[in-house]
TrEMBL record:
PANTHER family: TRAFFICKING PROTEIN PARTICLE COMPLEX SUBUNIT 2. Gene3D superfamilies: 3.30.450.70. It comes from Stylophora pistillata. This is Putative trafficking protein particle complex subunit 2. Pfam families: Sedlin_N.
């Protein structure tokens, strides 16, 4: 195809967001060698632009368009030789453009690809607005432009001094900022620092798109080997995970004892699920702004400035007291939630499930020292047929506040083991010998 090579990103009402024009490969036949030669200098830059512009638009459209997902369309539109299409349609079939982008590129008509947004075939996990909304507005620049750390400093300043204080309700130190930039699984909030990510994103971009670069420069008109792309992505993923783990370990070394303890607890399995769970109102997973702010402060053991001075029970109100108050402290509330949830799940697979069953009375039995001998002793859940067809299995839930002052010198695993052994000491012999 001779002439100019035109590329554009078209937005709302066909207004061009970005247009670029390149010289197409000039075809000349060398009769003596029987080979074609191409000019490829311009295309060396064109390929990365095309790959990343299309990928970024796909990501943003998928994650920021409510209730829609992107997948190949069976439609063919030959009015544009090559196009990626990102449009939202109403349920009645009439086009109602709310977010609309088209990535157009002159290419062989027989290799036309059309992508459109459709109602999802499965429930998609909503992502944090910063991670899959705001962040993707600068992802393209991080991937394609080298040495842009200085340019991104005003952006990082806005995130650290405006966005984060608005979310967590307090100004963060440099150490706090580095902690919040960690992934959720490593104890952070995934509020990444663009200045720190710039070099890694650019290097990852070059590594992943290397096979695409070679095919576009060679003008082979063939798809690159998917295994090469997959291996490149996996290598980038593994390298990023290793780098972030090292950063988390280094932060623990320089952090105070209190911050180190908060990071260790936040990295425990299951402790960060509330940050990525579906915010379903019917299950109580949708937190208000105040609830979210308080949960973040509890996560990092930050002080509260707006709590009452006296509890309803008459005791001085502190964070520790709010956890263990006998009149509805958070530990008691959480215990009851887990107990009821466990009973509901057991009722699906077991028969005769009972909540807080009273244990049989002790007559002449000899129990080990430390066993609970109270006549009204009870455990949390009993289910028949869990291990054996006609045998009863007992379950007990223990919830604790690991940031309490009494646990400050103990590791999380030590705290869990203490509570486990305490439960076994109280009830194991009475259940096994009498029940």
């Amino acid at each position: 195809m001779l002439g100019n090579y035109y590329f554009a990103i078209v937005g709302h009402r066909d207004n061009p967001v970005l247009e670029m024009e390149f010289n197409t490969p000039t075809k000349s036949l060398d009769s003596s060698q029987g080979r074609e030669s191409y000019k490829r200098d311009d295309h060396r830059h064109l390929n990365q632009f095309i790959a990343h512009a299309a990928l970024d638009l796909v990501d943003e459209s998928m994650w920021t368009t409510t209730g829609m997902e992107l997948r190949p369309s069976p439609e063919w539109n030959f009015s544009l030789p090559y196009k990626y299409m990102f449009k939202q349609e109403c349920s009645h079939g009439v086009r109602c453009i709310k977010t609309s982008y088209e990535v157009r590129m002159n290419r062989d008509k027989n290799k036309l690809a059309v992508y459109k947004l459709y109602p999802p075939r499965f429930n998609r996990r909503p992502a944090m607005p910063h991670t899959f909304g705001l962040k993707h507005r600068w992802t393209y620049f991080l991937r394609t432009l080298p040495n842009v750390q200085d340019i991104l400093e005003p952006l990082e300043e806005a995130i650290s001094q405006v966005l984060i204080p608005a979310i967590v309700g307090r100004k963060c130190s440099k150490l706090d900022r580095d902690v919040l930039a960690l992934p959720v699984r490593l104890g952070g909030l995934s509020l990444s620092n663009p200045c720190h990510e710039a070099a890694r994103e650019h290097a990852s971009s070059i590594q992943v798109t290397s096979s695409l670069v070679e095919h576009i420069m060679a003008q082979t008109h063939q798809q690159p080997d998917e295994s090469l792309i997959a291996s490149g992505r996996q290598a980038v993923k593994d390298g990023k995970a290793e780098e972030l783990s090292e950063i988390a370990d280094n932060l623990k070394q320089i952090a105070s004892r209190k911050t180190k303890r908060a990071l260790e607890l936040a990295q425990e399995k299951g402790s960060s699920v509330w940050l990525i769970v579906l915010p379903l109102q019917e299950h109580g997973f949708n937190l208000s702004k105040r609830d979210f702010r308080d949960a973040v402060k509890l996560r990092y053991d930050w002080p509260f400035d707006d709590i009452p001075s006296v509890c309803a029970c008459g005791e001085n109100f502190t964070v520790d007291h709010a956890m263990i108050c006998k009149r509805g402290g958070f530990v008691i509330q959480r215990h009851n939630e887990l107990r009821d949830l466990e009973a509901d799940l057991l009722s699906i697979v077991c028969t005769d499930v009972e909540v807080e069953p009273v244990l049989q009375d002790i007559t002449e039995e000899q129990l080990s020292r430390g066993s609970n001998r109270a006549q009204d002793a009870r455990l949390d859940v009993r289910a028949r047929g869990f291990w054996d067809p006609q045998s009863s299995a007992f379950f007990d839930v223990r919830v604790c506040h690991p940031n309490a002052e009494s646990y400050k010198d103990q590791e999380p695993q030590q705290i869990y083991r203490i509570h486990e052994n305490d439960k076994k000491r109280l009830y194991s012999r009475r259940v096994l010998d009498i029940q």
